[in-house]
Structures are given as structure tokens and as C-alpha cells.
Amino acid sequence: MRIERIELRVLHLPLVRFFETSFGRISERTFVLVTVEEAGAEGVGECVADAHPYYSAETTRTAWHIIADFLAPIVLGRHFDHPRDIYGALARVRGHNMAKAALEMAAWDLYAKQQGASLSRVLGGDRTAIESGVSIGIQDSLEDLVERVSIERSAGYRRVKIKIKPGWDIDAVSRVRQACGEIPLMVDANAAYTLADGPHLAGLDRFGLMMIEQPLEYDDLRDHARLQQVVRTAICLDESIHSVRSAADAIELGACRIINIKPGRLGGFTESIGVHDAAAEAGVPVWHGGMLESGVGRAHNLHLSTLPNFTLPGDVAASCRYYAPDLIDPEIVMRPDGTIAVPSGPGIGVNLVPDRVAAATTEKMELRVE
Ligand code: OSB
Ligand code: MG
Q1: What angle separates helix 295-304 from helix 269-281, to the nearest 10 degrees?
Q2: pTM here?
Q3: For 218-234, how does the pLDDT look when each residue is reduced to its tens digit (9 = 90+)?
Q4: How do strand 41-46 and strand 235-237 relate by DSSP bridges?
Q5: Which residues have CB less than 5 Å away from ligand 2 (the ion)?
Q6: Short-list 291, 343, 338, 283, CA closest to 313
Q7: Which atom of ligand 1 is nearest to the CA of 293?
Q8: Does the pLDDT of residue 272 top 90, yes or no?
Q9: Which residue's CA lies nearest to atom 7 of ligand 1?
Q10: What's the rounded mean pLDDT across residues 103-110?
Q11: Residues 6+ apart with CB under 8 A from 197
């Protein structure tokens, strides 16, 4: 594979419904879409960095800058036997995993298309469908929360995650349990607590949650290991895991019993497969997280979710929960049994609708081999 042209776009898409986490409420996403091309064949990748640096340090603008000025020049015109070699070639640039992932994942799509193979096969997955869960944000009231959970459960989602923060935790979980019974339920704090909240968080143990996701600081492992001694509920790490090495550290320290894999956070598919494999070896289950992706990133996520250690339902849900219409056709739909079929065509197996992409584009740039 030898990428000859890279196109960057900034896209702006309103969300169907606002999404609120412990770090704030958003109603739209602004993200970079990367297209890579060789001899007329194209691959696409979606950068999960948003306009603000609240989930992670990266933003739409830093991703644009890093891809255009540093990553694209490394990759353009260079021969790669396989897309698994790209992440290593970008190692000289420190951090900026979301920028790296957008470019690397576009290259995986291109490579799979050149092979005439489904991306999931190229990644090493063998499922034809994945189990879908939903992530439900903080709502204006507990009544609204119960209503949202009920709606998503009736739709068929196999597990429900609710966002928590101090002041919106025990009562929220208690109300959902009362109203909805013993559904597969978990919580995600997006780093809103400190170790001093341990006894309070242990108050969640009585609800039989599947896990507590990222209760403490975004870059912490040590306090999570201490917290896991205080709470019975399994801790799952999201923000704290940014590499195979940090995953191995977390497992060895006992900082988590479950890992959320997001390729954007990990610099792409190569490192994601590494975390998946390391976790499998240690007997730690993984699930696929979400970043409110459009259909492009969502399709990539579906394909990665077909690897064998993705044994828990993830946050990869139907397109219609996020954007109406989505950028792709056909959209990604969840079936009444709570599963999503993995597209079987070459690459990511979904098609961008050019008019919708054009309408959402606010900036565009092209880079070519000199
Ligand atoms: O912490 O998993 C998270 C969305 C944006 C940033 C961080 C997170 C999330 C979600 C939503 O939980 C998952 C989704 O529905 O895509
Ligand atoms: Mg999370």
C-alpha cells in the first residue's frame, strides 16, 4: 500500500439529542474526516477528537494540525506492506492518538478494500454480528432518566450504561433498578471522583452493577487499584488506558478487571488489537466504547468488535440515536434481538453519501505526494 493523496475535512453535525457527561453537555460534534487514496481506491477514517479538550487533551484543531503537518508527511508516498506497520511509523510523534488513529484506520479501510475483504476479516475478527449496548447521559431529571432507559431497553439493547457524577449517582442507579429491575446495568463517571469517595462508591455495590467505568482521574492507575480494594463492583478503565503498556500496567496493578477499548484513544487498530490480546492473555474481558461517532467511525468500531475477547456488549449502538440522517447509507441499525449485523462488503462496508458529507463540511484540505 502506498498512499498518494490525503484529504482532510472538518465536519459539523448536530446530535439528535444532547449528551451530558460529568465533563459537560454537548449538542453537536465537530470532527475531522480523513480520506486516503491510492490509484482511485479510497479509505476513510473519523477522528474522535471533539471541539473541546474535556474528555482528552486532543481537539478537532489539534488533530487537523498534527495530521496535516506531521503525520501525513510521514505516510504519503511511503510503502507499507500492511496497515499494522503504520502506527510504529508514526511513533516519532508523541501522543496525539486520536489524530494517529483517524489516519491509521482510514489506511486499514483502504487496505481491506484493496484486498476485496471485509475490514473485520483483515483485523482478525470472525463474528458476523455484535451485541449492542447504550450509553445514556445525565438527564434533566430522574424521571427523564428512567424514561430513556425504558425506551432503550424496549428497543432491545443488551445492556445499559448510565453516566454518573457526584450528586447524580446512587439515586440515579436506585431509581433505574426500581423501575427497570435486574437489567444488565453499569455506570460511567468519566473521572468525576477521587479516592476519598471510595466509601460512597462502595454504596453502589448493592445494585449488582456489571462495572464502574473510570471513576477516578483520567491518567490514574494507582488510586484505581486502591479503590478496587474498597469496592466489590468491577472497575473498568477507559480514559486511563492509552496504550498496550498502560493496559499491562493496569492489569498488573489490579487497577481494573475490565477494559473499554476505543481505537481513537489508543492510536488506531494496531494498538487496539494489542490491548485486546494482552487483556485476553490476562483473562480480562474487553468491550468496545463509543465516542458519538458518525456512521464512518461506527462502522470501524463494529468491525473491531468482532474480535474474540470483546465478550461484553459495548457502546456501539444504532446510527439513528446520534444523527438524522447519518453520513452513510444504509445506516447502522440494531435488530430487535439487540445485535447489529457487521457489514460484509469490502473495507468498512458502508458508503458515504457525498451530498451529506458536503453539507456538513466547513473546511477542506488536500495533501499529495510531492
Ligand atoms: O466515556 O465512554 C465515554 C461519549 C463521548 C466521550 C466519552 C464517552 C462517551 C460515551 C458515549 O459514553 C458512547 C456512545 O454512545 O458513542
Ligand atoms: Mg467512558
Answers
A1: 30
A2: 0.98
A3: 999 999 999 999 999 99
A4: unpaired
A5: 188, 213, 238
A6: 338
A7: 16
A8: yes
A9: 291
A10: 98
A11: 166, 215
